[in-house]
């Protein structure tokens, strides 16, 4: 079994790529969804992570019913880099453990090739456990339009989000690039060519 990571800055098209892979029957684990699960106080997997976040940040990152307020947490991360470091020190080990378990399940299921999607695979050090990293790229103009439409975000908020991610850092550790610059069928042809090449080698 081989497992590749899929990364890229926000709005580049990672989800589009992963949805296409899933439609073709390839397993994909979304590390960002895992990050939510491992801090959900209502799940067995999330109680420990929630407790650690509460201990680190207190009630300032909770909503009225005592759940994590993701908007408040995100705002705090954007305005206070040391808090972001603290959060990542909590999250990354929990995410790695969860994904390692997923990969073990894939192996028992005789999966030939699988994918882990995440914006911070490199920063978390998880890329060292993978066959390689694929970076999905798009122009800033395209990304701004997508995010403003998808998430109803203002342009200044989108640009602030851009500042939280370093594409050059991702590119440094990526072995493959999928360019999401034109129509979807052109984008998907790059993915098909990658699959054909890797499966022939397997």
From the alpha carbons, calculate the radius of gyration and give it in angstroms. 18 Å
Gap between N and C termini, in Å? 8 Å
Strand proportion, as a percent range, falls in: 5-15%
**CATH 4th-level superfamily of the largest domain:** P-loop containing nucleotide triphosphate hydrolases
Number of domains: 2
Low-confidence stretches: none
Which geometry do the CA atoms define?
A: globular
Total DSSP E strands: 5
Mean pLDDT: 87
Summarize the structure.
The protein is 54% helix and 12% strand. It has helices spanning 14-23, 31-37, 47-57, 70-79, 81-108, 140-151, 155-162, 167-172, 184-201; strands at residues 2-7, 28-30, 113-117, 132-137, 176-179.
């Amino acid at each position: 079994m081989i497992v590749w990571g899929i990364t890229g800055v926000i709005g580049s098209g990672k989800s589009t790529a992963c949805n296409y892979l899933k439609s073709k029957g390839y397993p994909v684990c979304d590390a960002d969804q895992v990050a939510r699960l491992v801090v959900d106080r209502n799940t067995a997997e999330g109680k420990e992570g929630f407790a650690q976040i509460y201990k680190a940040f207190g009630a300032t990152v909770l909503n009225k019913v005592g759940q994590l307020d993701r908007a408040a947490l995100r705002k705090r991360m954007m305005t206070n880099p040391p808090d972001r470091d603290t959060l990542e020190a909590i999250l990354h080990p929990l995410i790695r453990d969860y994904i390692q378990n997923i990969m073990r399940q894939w192996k028992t299921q005789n999966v030939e090739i699988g994918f882990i999607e995440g914006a911070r695979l490199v920063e978390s050090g998880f890329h060292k456990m993978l066959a390689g990293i694929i970076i999905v790229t798009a122009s800033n103009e395209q990304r701004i339009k997508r995010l403003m439409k998808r998430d109803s975000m203002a342009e200044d908020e989108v640009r602030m989000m851009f500042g939280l991610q370093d594409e050059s850092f991702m590119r440094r550790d990526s072995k493959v690039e999928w360019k999401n610059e034109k129509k979807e069928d052109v984008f998907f042809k790059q993915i098909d060519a990658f699959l054909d090449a890797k499966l022939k080698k397997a």
